[in-house]
Amino acid sequence: MTPENKKTRQEIYAENASRKLAAKQEEERKRKRSNARYTIIGTIVVVLIVLVLILNSNLPYRATALTVDGEKYSVTDVNYFYYGQYYEFRNQNASYINYLIDVNTPLNKQQYDDETTWADYFKDQAVDAIEQMQTLCAAAEADGVTLSDENKAAIDESIETLKGYAKTNGMSLKQYLIAAYGRGTTEKSIRSIMEKTYLAAQYSQTALDSFTYTPEQLTAYYSDHADEFDTILYAYYRCDGSIDTEDMSEEAAAVAKQAAVAEAQDLADEIILAAGSTEQTFTDAVDVLANDTIISTSSQGNNLSAVYGDWLLDRARTAGNTTVIDTDDGAYVVMFLGRDNNDYEMKSVRHILITVEANDDGIYTDEALAAAKQKAEDVLAEWKAGEATEDSFAELANQYSEDPGSNASGGLYTNVVKHQMVEPFENFCFNEDHTYGDTAIVYAESAQYHGFHVMYYVGDAGNYADSLAKNAMLSADYSAWEESKMGEPTVVRGGAMRRVGN
Q1: Are the C-beta atoms of 382 and 396 separated by less than 8 Å?
Q2: How do residues 137-185 score in pLDDT, each as one tens digit?
Q3: Are the C-beta atoms of residues 457 and 428 closer than 8 Å to each other?
Q4: Hey, which residues does 238 pair with through a beta bridge?
Q5: What CA–CA distance (Å, rounded) separates 178 from 157?
Q6: What strands lie across the sheet with 450-463, from one edge to the other?
Q7: pTM
Q8: Closest C-alpha to 460, from 416, 423, 421, 419
Q9: What is the pLDDT of residue 500?
């Protein structure tokens, strides 16, 4: 090695130091990159954890879903009305709910109409209910109206009832409220909404109670609206002239209609030629010529079909009058049977229904009839052997009656009107010889049941004609009052509305 290629000790030390510094700097850069990566990942994990916690908490259900005149309602609040409307709808349509809604399928997956799901329908109903409640509450507060002690006690009782339901179902109140009204529902939220609904109802009832009418006013109003209120008794049969095809021609439709009109005219001629046209001659003619059954019914004038309503309401009609009325796809044969001005006393009764059990072929055997009759007699005997009071009868009705419409209210039917119940039931109600506490066992058949009614006569429940007039006048006066209070509220649906019903 020449002297020129030799490195001094100092140069060697400097090179080593430089390499160490570069390695250290690279290590530091790697450490910073690693820290940054883990910081980002950690931040994402924290965000995800927070999001999961929020979604599994009540926070989304406390978000504002609806605002009415500045008053905010959370998802939980709206859910109370949403599910309330849903449960009420199911109860009112219990006998055929399965034809309307599949209770096992989410409502947002079922169409109410071409553009609206059932979930949307109940949301709209909930919004309308909240709008009305909020407006009436605001009006009540403006008038200095506060919740009465009676209604405060009623709310407490309602909460206790909910606790009872929860206990019966093996749940805490919180669990039951969530199951019934959705996530986020608490006793506090339920109580808050109840206070508003009770205040609105109290304010409305005060207004209703302020409207009073004299007997002369009721009579005059009914007379002026007799065609709306009178009960029309009639029978009809429809001769179908429609064609079940997508490409029917006008000629084919005309031929089908002509055949239906001819059938209807033959029926009418048969009825009119019969000696003394009655419902029975109508029935006989349809049975013979059409091999079918008629529909015999009654309706208030304002509920009659537009097809034949005007003809039935003509004051020239007398019992047995029969006519044929054409429609676009057939014809009706219609017989006028009578007109009732509803000037009679409604009735209140209690009953215990013991149904006859049909066999597997749908037949009510003599043995089943005898068994049901014996049970009815045993129930009546049990009542007679006890206190034999109206209250004790009500207790037995709650215990034994198979009528879902009254077996939780002591078997009570009040304001019973004519042409409403099966004939034997009605005959008991309107027997003029009955006095309070009279009992009997009557047998009745309908499309829904065959059974024995253990009857208990309570008494008169007011004049039906006066009731119709009063209800119509109250409705008109209350609507005018409510409109004056409600005005045009400002309603805003928030994005959280999507969580209602979920």
Answers
A1: yes
A2: 999 999 999 999 999 999 999 999 999 999 999 999 999 998 888 888 9
A3: yes
A4: 332
A5: 19
A6: 412-416, 345-355, 450-463, 439-445
A7: 0.73
A8: 416
A9: 92
